[in-house]
Structures are given as structure tokens and as C-alpha cells.
Specification:
This protein is mostly helical and 503 residues long. The protein has 2 domains: 225 residues, no CATH class; 184 residues, Hypothetical protein af1432, CATH 1.10.3210. Helix content is 54%, strand content 1%. It has 20 helices and 2 strands. A two-stranded antiparallel ribbon has the order 1-2. Strand 1 and strand 2 form a beta hairpin. The radius of gyration is 28 Å and the shape is elongated.
Length: 503
């Protein structure tokens, strides 16, 4: 719990207190709770969650908690609200957690699902859903289709409460604006939760029938089929990540001047996108775009990338082909989607003086405009072996100065807001071309950190451009350790963009 922000810990504690208050009536003497039903449903949910903790099973078949929501909804239909709130707790406390801090996430999950099931059971009971489920014997058949109304209303309440709580913990733990934290959560989850509600209704009807609880277990079969489908998705997703990782490692090995740059650009791109309120399903694709924006360097001769001296005009032209090379490399990777266009166009400029096609304004794809800002920001703030990184405030001011001509002002403002809200941190060390330099956290506009010792350009050809002259671009933004200034037209010799020599 120590790694959890204070606001998130307070939020989790409040949820635990609310869940406890909701469940307390079931523990009072004379509450008339069907404890056999509570015990069986709790044991079933616990048994469904446990395989995720088993290395042998969990590693080969990742299990989504959502696959077993029908079981929780069946509890909401069969039990009074206080008793239904108890069913999810044991399974949630032992279920699989993908990310740290595991204990805080399990406690939050238990409280969240307890409150969600309680709300669904309240709605189902208010609409008289219990009387529509039928009972043992032919004289007590389920009241269909009228049983669908309270079941669907309960599933809707389940979805609303669950997504509201998901958004609230994102807002407190990640310090996101509420409208961004909740953006897209309900539309994505409402359909699946309504389907879960129908499966839960089927399970509840069978449970109440003369066949008893054993017959309701047959409803678990589609749940496990759902788990299998999720496992296929996870395997495919893991393969995607492995593909991206291999390409990025190849670029880092070839161009040692920018090691780690790609990952940071991906992270900064997502920071911008969250401030813009982009849908969650686009965020990962945008992160891929940031990570792979320089993949075209694989086609650039290594002697050019590592040249210790100024580039010739011909070598500059070769460097400026890397967006097109990158686009060709990833053309056949279907899951990258919009990322392919960002890789091709991340060196375009708003005023039309960029490359490779000289696009301007809104002709430049949105992802490319995001990556361009993230790329330049990391290039300016990263410490290389041949120069010290700029402080975060200085880099942001330089981006603002070039907004409207080189960068999209909307993207620059989004980055500034994100940095004010979250700061900018890197790993404990940054691997540069020649040495490892310690870096401190830059929060809320603080500097990017201190280096072990002053670093100097490798060549006396000239200092790095001062503010007001040029914004460094992605990658190795100086020629052989020397900065490249721009002329009055905004283009350096050899069709160089005003970002300096951007590799």
C-alpha cells in the first residue's frame, strides 16, 4: 500500500467502509439469509478466480474477472443485497493481479465488486425480480419474458456502478480529470454486462428450479469458453508486444545515441493523448506509434547514424528517408492501425516545411502531430554523452515558441498540462551512447536532473542552439555531437528542418 498515492488509499478505504456497511445487515441475527446459497455461490466464485493464481494454469490461460460476472449477477438475483455483497469478497482477495501494488488492487477489487453486486441486487429487488425467477415444481415456472426487465435493469446498475468506481480510482490514483477517467468506460462495458446479466438470469432460474444448484453449473461452461477466447486475445497481444520490443531493441542497438528514446516518446505520447481525452483503445496504438517512430533507422547505414562529424547533404537526405523506411517496415503489421501514418509523418511541420511530403496543418494525421511534440520534448530533455539535457520548463517553453509553425499548439498545451499534473520521470538511470548518467525526477516543471559531471560537445564547431533558434528533433539531434543551427527560412542546409539535424 505504500506505493499507492495517498488520495487513492483514502478512496480505497472509503470504498471498503461503504462495502462493509452494505454487507453488515446480513450478519445480524434473524436476518433470514440463505447461508447455503451464499456459501455455494461464494465457493464457486472463489474456485473460478483461483486458477489465475496457479502458474501452470494462469500463465497459459489468462482469466478475466469479467468472465465470471454472470456468477455475481446470479448472486444479485438470488440473494438479498447484503448477502449478495459478500459473494465477491473471497474470490477478489485471492484473484490474479497483473500489476503492483497487488494488495491494494485486491482490496479495491473486493470492495468495488461488493458495492457493485449490492447495487444490482437492490435494483433487482425493487423491481420485484425475485418473484419472476420461479421455483421448484411445474406450478412455479419462471415468469418470462417479464423476468428480463428486472434482470436487465440490475445489469445496467451493475455496469453503471462498476464503471463509475473504475473511473473514480483512475482519477485518484492517476490524477486524471474525471471526464477523462470515465471517458469511454460505460460504452465499452455496457453491452458485455447486459450479456452477463442474461447469463446470470439463466443461472438463477436453473438454481431455483427443481433441478437445483447443480444444473446452474452448466452455465459456467460458456464462462470458461469466454476465458479461452480471452486467452487467445492475450496471446495475440503478447505477440504484438514482442514484435514491438524486437524492433525497438534493433533500433537501440543500431543507433546507440538514442537508446531508450523510443520508449520515452511512447510514454510522452500517451501523456498528451490522455490530456486530449482520446479513447482508451487508441492509446495503445499511439504508444506503439511513439515507440516505433524511428524504426526506419534500421534501413539507414550505421556509419551515417554513428558518424563523428557533420553530415554531408547526401547523408542528410538519407537520414530524412527514415520515416518512409519505417512506414515500409510496418506496412504489413495490421494491429498498428493509425500508428503507421504517425511513423510516416512525424517529421511534418504545421507550416508545411517538414518532410517527407511537406504536409501542413490538419493534413498531418493527429497521431503524427502528437508524436512530433513528444519526440522533440524527449530529445531536448534527454542527456546525451555529448551534451546536457535541457530542464523540463525550458523544453516546454521552446515547444510553445515553435507552436503554430512547427508543432500543433493543441498538442503542446496538452503536454504542458500533463507535465504539470504528473511531472516527467525516467528510469533511475539513462543509458546514453557512452555512459550511464543518473537522472532525477522532474515533477511539475522541475528540471530533468543532474549529471555526474559536466559534458561538452565533442567538437568545437559551435554551441547548441540557444532558445529562439531551433528545437531539437528526435534522436541524435546534433551532427556528430555538434548542434546544427538553422537559417532564417527555418531550414538548415541540405533541407534540414528547424528542429536541427533530426535523426
Amino acid at each position: 500500500m505504500r506505493a499507492t498515492p495517498l488520495a487513492a488509499r483514502a478512496h480505497i478505504l472509503a470504498a471498503v467502509v461503504c462495502a462493509t456497511l452494505c454487507a453488515l445487515p446480513a450478519l445480524r441475527p434473524g436476518a433470514g439469509i440463505a447461508w447455503t446459497t451464499v456459501g455455494l455461490l461464494t465457493a464457486l466464485y472463489l474456485a473460478c478466480e483461483l486458477p489465475g493464481r496457479c502458474r501452470l494454469v494462469g500463465s497459459s490461460v489468462p482469466i478475466s474477472a469479467g468472465s465470471f460476472f454472470p456468477l455475481l449477477l446470479a448472486a444479485a438475483f438470488l440473494l438479498p443485497p447484503a448477502a449478495a455483497a459478500l459473494v465477491a469478497i473471497p474470490g477478489s482477495l485471492v484473484g490474479r493481479v497483473e500489476h503492483a501494488p497487488a494488495r491494494a488492487r485486491r482490496i479495491w477489487r473486493a470492495a468495488q465488486l461488493s458495492l457493485t453486486v449490492w447495487a444490482a441486487s437492490c435494483v433487482h429487488g425493487l423491481l420485484g425480480g425475485g418473484a419472476t425467477l420461479g421455483g421448484p415444481g411445474p406450478e412455479r415456472l419462471p415468469d418470462l419474458p417479464y423476468a428480463l426487465l428486472p434482470a436487465c435493469a440490475a445489469a445496467l446498475a451493475f455496469s453503471l456502478v462498476l464503471t463509475a468506481l473504475d473511473g473514480s480510482i483512475l482519477a485518484t490514483a492517476e490524477r486524471l480529470p474525471l471526464r477523462h477517467a470515465w471517458s469511454g468506460l460505460l460504452p465499452r462495458s455496457l453491452g458485455p454486462h447486459l450479456v452477463h446479466g442474461l447469463a446470470g438470469l439463466m443461472m438463477a432460474v436453473l438454481w431455483r428450479s427443481s433441478y437445483g444448484p447443480v444444473s446452474a453449473l452448466f452455465v459456467l461452461l460458456p464462462m470458461y469458453i469466454s476465458c479461452w477466447i480471452f486467452s487467445q486475445y492475450h496471446r495475440e497481444h503478447a505477440a504484438h508486444r514482442a514484435t514491438i520490443r524486437a524492433l525497438v531493441q534493433a533500433v537501440d542497438i543500431k543507433d546507440t545515441y538514442t537508446r531508450g528514446h523510443s520508449e520515452r516518446v511512447g510514454r510522452a505520447s500517451v501523456l498528451i493523448a490522455r490530456e486530449l481525452g482520446m479513447a482508451e483503445d487508441r492509446l495503445e496504438v499511439l504508444r506503439f506509434a511513439g515507440i516505433l517512430h524511428d524504426v526506419g533507422k534500421l534501413c539507414v547505414p550505421t556509419r551515417v547514424l554513428r558518424k563523428d562529424g557533420p553530415l554531408t547533404p547526401e547523408e542528410r537526405r538519407v537520414i530524412e528517408l527514415h520515416p518512409e523506411y519505417g512506414h515500409e517496415i510496418v506496412r504489413g503489421i495490421g494491429f498498428l492501425g493509425e500508428a503507421r501514418e504517425a511513423i510516416l509523418h512525424h517529421h511534418e511541420r504545421l507550416d508545411g516545411s517538414g518532410y517527407p511530403y511537406g504536409l501542413s496543418g490538419r493534413e498531418i494525421p493527429e497521431f503524427a502531430r502528437v508524436v512530433a511534440v513528444a519526440d522533440a520534448f524527449d530529445a531536448m530533455t534527454s542527456t546525451r554523452s555529448y551534451r546536457r539535457g535541457r530542464p523540463v520548463p525550458a523544453a516546454v517553453e521552446e515547444l510553445k515558441r515553435c507552436a503554430g509553425t512547427q508543432f500543433d499548439p493543441q498538442m503542446v498545451r496538452a503536454l504542458a498540462r500533463g507535465l504539470d499534473r504528473h511531472g516527467w520521470s525516467t528510469a533511475s538511470t539513462v543509458v546514453t551512447a557512452d555512459e550511464t548518467v543518473p537522472v532525477a525526477r522532474a515533477g511539475g516543471g522541475a528540471g530533468t536532473g543532474a549529471v555526474r559531471k559536466p559534458v561538452r560537445p565533442r567538437s568545437p564547431d559551435g554551441p547548441e542552439p540557444a532558445a529562439g533558434r531551433a528545437v531539437p528533433g528526435d534522436g541524435r539531434d546534433v551532427a556528430g555531437g555538434r548542434a546544427v543551427a538553422t537559417d532564417g527560412s527555418g531550414l538548415a542546409s541540405g533541407a534540414q528542418s528547424s528542429v536541427g539535424r533530426t535523426r
